[in-house]
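User: Just a sanity check before I run the rest of the batch. Below are the C-alpha cells for the first item. I only need the designed sequence back.
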C-alpha cells in the first residue's frame, strides 16, 4: 500500500512539473511573439513608392504662361527703346537746329545793317552782299554742307539736272557750261542736284 501511494505521489509530481514546463513554454512563446512584433523580426515593412507623373496639359499650360510673360517683357522693353530713341532723335535735332540758328544769327545781323544803310554806292553794296554770302557759306560748311563745283565738269546725272543743251565753242559736248541753281553735298552725299546747262555737239566745238 505504501508503494502504491508512493507511485501516485510521484505521478502527481511529474504531472505538475509537466504543467509548469508547458506554461513556461507558453510564456516564452508569447514573449517571443511580442518581442518579434516590436523589434520587427518578422521583416521590414516595404513602402510602396509611386512615381508621380506630371500631367502634359499642366506642363503645356505652364510653358505657355512663361512664354507669354517673356513676350510681355520683350514688348515692354521694345516700346521703351522706341520711346528713348525718339526722344534722343528729337533732342539731337533740336540741338543741331539751335546751333545752326546761332551761326546764322550774325549773318542776319549783317544783312540788316546792310539794308539799313542809305547809300547809292553800288560797289559798296555789292561788297557787303558778297561778305554776307561768304559768312553764310562758311557757316554751312561747319555742318558739312558744301557747294558743288560744276562749271567745266562732265555732265553726271547723279549730280546734275540738265535744264538746257546749247552749242558751245569752248567746251566739249556733254560738259556743264552754266549753272542755274547750285547743287549741294552734305558730308559727301548729294542733297540737292545742281541745275545746269550742258554743251552739245555742233558749232565750233573742239
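Assistant: Here's the designed sequence for the first item:
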Amino acid at each position: 500500500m505504501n508503494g502504491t501511494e508512493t507511485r501516485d505521489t510521484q505521478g502527481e509530481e511529474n504531472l505538475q512539473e509537466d504543467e509548469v514546463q508547458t506554461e513556461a513554454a507558453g510564456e516564452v512563446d508569447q514573449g517571443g511573439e511580442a518581442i518579434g512584433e516590436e523589434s520587427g523580426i518578422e521583416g521590414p515593412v516595404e513602402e510602396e513608392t509611386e512615381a508621380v507623373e506630371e500631367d502634359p496639359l499642366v506642363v503645356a499650360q505652364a510653358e505657355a504662361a512663361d512664354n507669354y510673360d517673356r513676350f510681355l517683357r520683350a514688348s515692354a522693353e521694345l516700346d521703351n527703346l522706341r520711346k528713348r530713341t525718339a526722344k534722343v532723335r528729337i533732342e539731337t535735332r533740336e540741338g543741331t537746329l539751335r546751333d545752326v540758328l546761332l551761326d546764322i544769327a550774325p549773318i542776319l545781323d549783317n544783312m540788316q545793317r546792310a539794308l539799313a544803310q542809305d547809300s547809292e554806292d553800288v560797289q559798296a553794296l555789292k561788297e557787303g552782299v558778297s561778305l554776307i554770302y561768304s559768312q553764310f557759306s562758311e557757316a554751312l560748311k561747319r555742318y558739312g554742307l558744301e557747294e558743288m563745283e560744276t562749271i567745266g565738269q562732265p555732265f553726271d546725272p547723279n549730280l546734275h539736272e540738265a535744264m538746257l543743251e546749247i552749242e558751245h565753242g569752248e567746251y566739249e559736248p556733254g560738259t556743264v557750261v552754266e549753272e542755274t541753281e547750285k547743287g549741294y553735298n552734305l558730308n559727301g552725299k548729294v542733297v540737292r542736284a545742281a541745275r545746269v546747262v550742258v554743251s552739245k555737239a555742233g558749232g565750233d566745238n573742239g
